[in-house]
Amino acid sequence: MTLTAMFLAALPIGIGATVVMDLWGLLLRRLGVATLNFAMVGRWAGHLLGGRVSHQAIAKAEPVRNELAWGWVIHYATGVLFAMLLVGIVGESWLRSPTLLPAVIVGVGTIVAPLCFMQPAMGAGFFASRTPTPARNCLKSLVTHFVFGVGLFLSAGLLALV
C-alpha cells in the first residue's frame, strides 16, 4: 500500500474516530468532568514553532494567535496520523473487514503520546504526575484513548459498508 493510499484510507477513519472521541469528551464535560482545552495544544504548538518545547504550565504561557483553531487542527491531524498507523499495521484486508481488537490496541497504544510527551511538554509531568489527581487523569486518558480505538473500528466499519 502506498503512502498516499494509506493516507486516503486513514483520513476518514481518523476523522471519524476523533469525532467519536470528541463526543465522549462532550459527554464528560456535560457530566462535570474537566477535559483538555485544545487552545492549550495550539498554544504549545505556537511556542514550539518559536523553539520552546516545554513549559512549567502551558496555561500561564503567553497566548498565541488562533491557538484554539490550531489546537483543533492538530487534534484532528493527530487522529488521522494514528489512523495511518493502524492502517499501516493491519493492512488493506482489515479495511475490507475491520475487527475491533486491532483498532482498540492501537487506540489504547496512542495513550503514550499524551502521557509521555504532551503532558510533560505542557507542564503536567509524565503520566500527569504534576497534576492534583495523576491516577484519575491517567485513567481518564486511558478510557478516552480506548474510545478513540472504538471510533477507529466504527469508522472503518462504516467505510467498509460503502
How is this structure best described in words?
Helix content is 73%, strand content 0%. With 162 residues, it is an all-alpha fold. It has one domain. It is globular, with a radius of gyration of 16 Å.
Mean pLDDT: 95
Given as residue ranges, the uncertain stretches (5+ residues, pLDDT < 50) are none
What is the total domain count?
1
**What does the largest sheet look like?**
none
What key phrases describe this protein's structure?
globular; single chain; 7 helices; mainly alpha; 162 residues
Q: Would you kindly provide a brief summary of this structure?
A:
The protein is an all-alpha fold and 162 residues long. It is 73% helix and 0% strand.
Topology:
Blueprint: H1 3-30, H2 38-49, H3 67-90, H4 92-96, H5 100-109, H6 112-122, H7 134-161
